[in-house]
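Chapter review: from sequence to fold.
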Amino acid sequence: MSDTLRLLLALLELGPRLKDLLGDRWPPYADELQALAGRADQGEDPDRLRQSLDLLVVRLLAEPPAMELVQRVMADTAAPVAIGETVTRRGRVSPPVVPDTVRPATDEATGIVTIPVFYGTDRARGDDTPARYFIGERGNLSFGVAEVSVPTRGRDIGELTGPSWWRLEFSPNPEKHVILKSVGALDRDAFVTRLKDSLAAADLHDVLIFVHGYNVTFEDASRRAAQLAVDLKFAGRTLLYSWASAADTKKYTVDESTIDWSRDHFEAFLQLALGEVGAGKVHVIAHSMGNRAVINTLERVTSWQLPSGAAKLGQIIFAAPDIDRDRFVQLAAKFKGCAACVTLYASSRDVALLASKFVHGYPRAGEAGEALTVVDGIDTIDASLVDTSLVGLHHSYFGEKRSILNDMFNLIAQQLGPDQRFDLQAAGDALRKYWRYRA
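The token string follows.
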């Protein structure tokens, strides 16, 4: 773990003490720490993140009540302050072309895979460019297909590559970067028909639904969904549910309100996937705050009236869920047995979860350590030794070259239980058994 992340985590943990010391002067610091946590969770360039954190620390050191505590934290984390200048710019290629295919396609010469991502979203419409086709405001539930190209050569598992100015990359390159090429809207009936036809032609008649977390644009959600499909070698069809995240680190509470508002829309989308497209199984991967829509929907799954022959829920994956731990335990008892397998990945080093605990004051379901959530009917995995951000190897705050994506592949593609996955070992006792990564 880098000094930058270590210092940020330490300051988040000390939030209550700093609040007591600074009183009315604390709220601006709290807001900035929360924003920095969001930027770290999104894999921001480490140099730029460190510059912002250094500036915050300098201001805290100028506050006499907090100075000694902050100095002690810096000594404990071996994190000297060094202020520099780094500017990051990111370009996009956004050709407004509506995809005319609903099947993955591979260019054998370049190794580029083009993935159709069948989306449902309650975002408001923006303009006609892919990057701004949907924005961070609420709209009506709508459907369509996003076309994303993913390079398979020179990209590590989990890496959501994009142009970087410091690599002298000023525009996306399909052979290096994951690119949202086009977005096409469909009415509900046309969406069901196209997905049904595409699924019938697939090697595997299952669908995988990805639900993103806080501070995510539609563009990046689409790119992440396609990258997951490629890295998990998923042979079915890939779906995305993109709720109207404001995609702004300063609007955490706005996103919290929106994910609750979005629950009915996600429920309608999941019911469509189960009952109308001819799927065999429906798998769901939810990350961070996106878990709230999923778990609040599963609470009601036993009351649904699905048609005869509807798909079954296969793998349900809660990746670092940002939801109150006690609330998660309450809801888990209600949907027990609704899916073939339910897995919870927890971590003691997930910056977004620590930021959420910092705001709410109560443990999150995705935390490890003393607050680790172990519930009957759910395989809990302490993934503190790997990266739970879904960002994978380019998330440079972690030194280990492992990601939960490796385990998800064995879980979804190979259908292996935790006792069959080499990288995991049993922990706890008979009453509180869980799994953790081997050191």
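Two observations follow directly from the output. Residues 82-100, 165-170, 391-401 have pLDDT under 50 and may be disordered. The longest helix spans residues 26-41.
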